[in-house]
UniProtKB/TrEMBL annotation, chains A, B:
Organism, scientific name: Marihabitans asiaticum
InterPro entries: Ferritin-like, Ferritin-like_SF, Ferritin_actino
This protein's name: tRNA-(MS[2]IO[6]A)-hydroxylase MiaE-like protein
Domain Ferritin-like: 16-198
Amino acid sequence: MSEEPSTKPGSTLGDREREGVIELLGVIAYGAISGFTRLAADSELSKDLGLKTALAGMAVDEFAKHELLVTHIRELGGDPMEAMTPFVPAFDSFHARTAPRGLLEGLVKAYIGDGIANDFFREISAFVDDESRAIIAQAAGDGRRTEVIVDAVRRQIRADRHLAGPLALWGRRLVGEALSQGQLVAGERDALAELILGTSHSRPGAGLEEMGAIMQRLTDAHQQRMARLGLSA
Amino acid sequence: MSEEPSTKPGSTLGDREREGVIELLGVIAYGAISGFTRLAADSELSKDLGLKTALAGMAVDEFAKHELLVTHIRELGGDPMEAMTPFVPAFDSFHARTAPRGLLEGLVKAYIGDGIANDFFREISAFVDDESRAIIAQAAGDGRRTEVIVDAVRRQIRADRHLAGPLALWGRRLVGEALSQGQLVAGERDALAELILGTSHSRPGAGLEEMGAIMQRLTDAHQQRMARLGLSA
């Protein structure tokens, strides 16, 4: 963890580190637009007006995160569109491979997929400068608004116990796809890969051992989320 | 037009008028959620990251309008879900009958459809109390962010002149469907219909002659929007 005091955004970063941080912010910023789109589509599918507006509100939160990240990319001297573009195929491919067949699968995907993505971004933010870490922590949210989703999913499973098995499979597929796309994303850009895995520079990065510990924490938190939905992980 | 001074929201309204105003706010509030959904879907279809985020931003604006209207419905003592529910079928039917076959049709629909809807709401707001009229004026926006849409449509038509004919037909179909659904909406609830057409009470409403003038103004503004897109109305 870096503890340096600083006066302006990113002033503690070397050029190569700054490049990696901007790439990381680009990933998260495109992920937020992507999350906006998914939640808006879930909102469209909902017949319940209360759930519909709650999901639309969550989509709006994702867009606010996007704007926060885009602003910080500019503060670091980066171009937001350039920073996001390399990661478009990975996200679009993830979403194409995990297109929900209905609202219920969409809700599980929003909760499980966004949950593991936010955890991942928070873990990786340990390796960036203080300001960027604070921005990422804010963008990764605390998931309070997800209560609406958890309630809706649990209610539907209570009403029809046969939903639990297929939804548990769905949750496992989501996390498998998320982890494999996550590896692609991490390896997509050199500076980002160096940021995460560490180089000979002052900022250490994760290293392979720490990477294993991160994966374990991601998996544990995922299992807790599955349990909250009433699904076996 | 009402000129009464007032101390709290809706204090100048009789019970029946208040009912009509809440119904009108319910129409516009559901229209805003509906607009949010459409613009988010257009954002999803856009391959251009700049246009994609601009459309997402416009969707977010629609949600902000929705929240503004819902707050005012509550201030008037209404239940927002109850106020919106009667109008769900008319909006959903309009959108089902005018499902865009691609981004370009979606953009024309957003500009032409939202344009005529906002004009209509502003016209009708002449018959409500001052506070509600101010809220409706704010929610009906001034369309500044639509520049992005106008530019994108014009650019595509310039690149392929053959698009202009089918898009002009599409614009005419949209306005036809919007007007016929608008009549259904206006007639859906008694208090709302009284608000618009006037009763023997102090607040006069439009009357049939004024209604004709309103339709003429809506049509004129529609033709100006078509012209701005480079389409014949």
